[in-house]
Amino acid sequence: MKVLIQNIKTGKYLAKNNKWVTSEAQAVDLCKLPVEVVRSIKGNEFRAVLYVAGEKGKPGFTFGAGNFLKSLCELKPLEAPDTHYLRAAQGWNELGNPVEACKELGQITPTQWAHPEVMEVRAKIGLSAGM
């Protein structure tokens, strides 16, 4: 799984060489970009998305996270109570209850919704629920 930067207008993703590509697989993980690069991307036409590669020949998919790039630039480590909500969501998902898992994620501070750990759990819930 990777967190990608997508230009909403063109549908393209930021690649490692700071060029825009159409393939999610060619895009660079946001966590591997220098903070200065992320901060330089401004405007409402960009968003962070979670990319999950396909398995066994199946196509991958992206999960949009809205327009949270500004908060990603200022992202802080998850702290309580958000860490508790995240772990509870993981637990509910492992128990096969995506509805309760989503309720727990909904309690996380909105500025932390684009945190890579939160996005990863959200994608796992979506996968287990067959979305």
What does this structure look like?
With 131 residues, the chain is of the alpha+beta class. The chain has two domains: 72 residues, no CATH class; 47 residues, no CATH class. The strands form two sheets. Strands 1-4-5 form a three-stranded antiparallel sheet, covered by helices on one side. Strand 2 and strand 3 form a beta hairpin. The longest helix has 13 residues. The protein is globular and about 40 Å long. The mean pLDDT is 80.
Question: What tags apply to this protein structure?
Answer:
2 domains; three-stranded antiparallel β-sheet; 5 helices; alpha+beta; single chain; 131 residues
Task: Give a nutshell description of this structure.
This protein has 131 residues and is α+β, with helices and mostly antiparallel strands. It is built from 5 helices and 5 strands.
Give the end-to-end Cα distance, rounded to a whole number of Å: 16 Å
Q: How does the major sheet shape up?
A: 3 strands, antiparallel
Approximate shape: globular
Q: Beta fraction of the residues?
A: 15-25%
Topology:
Layout (H helix, E strand, L loop, with lengths): L1 E6 L5 E2 L5 E2 L13 H6 L5 E7 L8 E4 L4 H5 L8 H13 L3 H9 L9 H13 L3
Antiparallel strand pairs: 1-4, 2-3, 4-5
